[in-house]
Amino acid sequence: MIKFIPLGGAGEIGANCYYLGIEGTGILLDCGMHPQKSGLDSLPNFDLIKDLPVDYVLISHAHMDHINSLPYLVQRHPYIKIITTPQTRAIAELTLHNSVSIFREQLGDHSYMKLYSHEEIDLLIQSIEYRSYEEVFELKGYNGLKIIKASFHGAGHILGSAGILIDTGEERLFYTGDIKLSSQSLIDKARLPKTKIDLLLLETTYGSTDTRAILSWSMEANTIISNGGSILIPVFSLGKHQEILATVWNLMQKGTLTETDIYTGGIGTKINTVYDYNRYNVNMLDKEFVLKNISQKNLYDITNYEEFFKSPSIVLASSGMMLESTASYNLAKHWLKNPRSAIFTVGYMEKNTPGYKIANASKGDQIRLSELSESEIVKCQIQCFRFPSHAFREDLIEIVNKLNPGKVILVHGDPLSIDWVGEHILKEFRHIKVFSAEAGKELIL
Predict the structure, then answer these.
(1) Domain holding 187: CATH number?
(2) Do 277 and 328 fall within a single domain?
(3) Which of 24, 86, 33 has the alpha carbon at shortest distance from 56?
């Protein structure tokens, strides 16, 4: 018997955290933070497990919506054991330190929420145990009645990302985490476990996205550049930054995309080093490809943003959703005023973010990026493309087909995405029971 409780990440993308109670052993799958909320609202609801055994947390990958609440979990459960892949541990050392100053700025003097320090992050990182892909390891909580086996399986999402297989001896549960069933520019496709699965926890990010809307953009990019314009591409520092950088460079080397200056910078550049260092240890498409060897200029060296428009360039800047006060947000305000240039969005945009407002705007529209900002007239071109690091919706159904579970719980998606995936599973697989995760709602499986 497995007790399943979503603490976050149910019916939404953010604060992903799922509790499994298995015969006295308490296991959390991920421990993320919601990017669109602040303070206690951004955390998983840890109160739901305050009276339950909490022995382990297994982290699928190092994106903030899957890992950034770890320091707060450790404050509540100082003896919890944290297990990740080696690459996720290495990336977490960068991203969790980077988040310290960000949270201090966002939360200010909120006394109800203890802010953590760099020293605490150092101790947390040192405490993380790591396991390689497909290495079987054992879990048994303080009050556990049996040994549980677990293993990580390459998820194809970002460096170090993993699906998590839990084997109780009687049932096998597989949590996809964020998964990609086809190859990207750098990371090879996911490798699903080759065993019968009884219970599948399936992400649904792209469930409501029509795959036919995912288009190539090299022709549009060349038009902007040939007209003397520059292109701003908002990217997440982890994953999207590296994949888009590799894509742009490869297209330039093939002659498909006009060669021009590429600007990058910030923590994304530091994460490039982790990608390069680990290229022989994970499922990379080309183990000889080195991100550091790509000719790049540091966008943070530019103090006058008009410099970006003096000659054509491509600028990769975080955050991917152009959140207020980030580099991409600050740059976007200048790009919107330049009629020769363009903003290319290349990923998922949460509603109510500046990125969503820009992605859904057209030339001539008037938009307000935040409540306190002035209205902007869109003079630049806006083009929306998708470079998904998540499975296409057809691939989500293919995962179900390959693993053939008896039960599926749908997580990590908006209601439209969950509805599409759930409806198609029920239509194609009559024997499978489908559940939509609800925050705080316990399922006995």
Answers:
(1) 3.60.15.10
(2) yes
(3) 24
**What is the Cα–Cα distance from 213 to 81, expressed in whole angstroms?**
42
Q: Which residue type does 164 have?
A: I
Kindly indicate the confidence band of residue 105, based on its pLDDT and cuts at 50, 70 and 90: low
- Residues 278, 420, single domain; the answer is no
Same domain membership, residue 165 and residue 296: no
Do 144 and 219 have their domain in common?
A: no
What gap in Å lies between CA 102 and CA 266, rounded to an integer? 14
What pTM was estimated for this model as a whole? 0.93
For the stretch 125-164, pLDDT in tens is: 999 999 999 999 999 999 999 999 999 999 999 999 999 9
Amino acid (1-letter code) at residue 421:
V
414/398 Cα distance (integer angstroms): 20
Residue whose pair of structure tokens reads 């869109």 in the numeric block = 378
Average of per-residue pLDDT across 253-267 = 94
Sign for the CA dihedral angle at 391, 396, 402, 406 comes to: positive
The DSSP code sequence of 80-148 is -EEEE-HHHHHHHHHHHHHHHHHHHHHHTT-TTSPPP-HHHHHHHHHH-EE--BT--EEE--TT-SS-E
Which domain covers residue 92, as residue numbers? 3-208+389-444
